[in-house]
Design brief:
Layout: E1 2-5, E2 8-11, E3 15-18, E4 21-27, E5 38-42, H1 60-77, H2 83-92
Antiparallel strand pairs: 1-4, 2-3, 4-5
C-alpha cells in the first residue's frame, strides 16, 4: 500500500507549508514485540528546500534524519542527472 506523509506548518489566516512524500508500507524487521509490525519506506526522493528549514530549531535526531534523507536523494538521483543538475542537487542536499 502506498500512502502520503504530509507534515506541515499552518499559520492561522496567513499561510501554510507542507512537505509531502509518498511512502510504501513494508514489513518491519522483528523488533521482539508481541506481534509483527509494519513500517514505511520513502519512495519519492526530492530534496527538502533548506531555505524552509530553521536548523537551529532541529534536534540532533531531526538533523540526522534530514542529512541521511538528503544523502539518499543525492546518492540515488545523482548518477541519473547531467553535470549542472548534479551540481544543483549537491547544493540542495548539503548536510546541515
Amino acid at each position: 500500500m502506498v500512502c502520503s506523509n504530509e507534515p506541515g506548518f499552518y499559520k492561522a489566516g496567513a499561510f501554510g507549508i507542507r512537505i509531502e512524500n509518498l511512502i510504501v508500507v513494508t514489513e518491519a524487521e522483528d523488533l521482539g514485540g508481541e506481534r509483527p509490525m509494519m513500517g514505511f519506506e520513502t519512495i519519492t526522493l526530492v530534496p527538502i528546500d533548506l531555505n524552509l528549514v530553521e536548523s537551529a530549531l532541529l534536534t540532533d535526531t531531526e538533523r540526522g534524519w534530514l542529512n541521511l534523507y538528503h544523502a539518499r536523494v543525492r546518492d540515488t538521483i545523482g548518477p541519473l542527472v547531467d553535470g549542472d543538475t548534479r551540481k544543483w542537487l549537491d547544493r540542495a542536499t548539503q548536510a546541515i
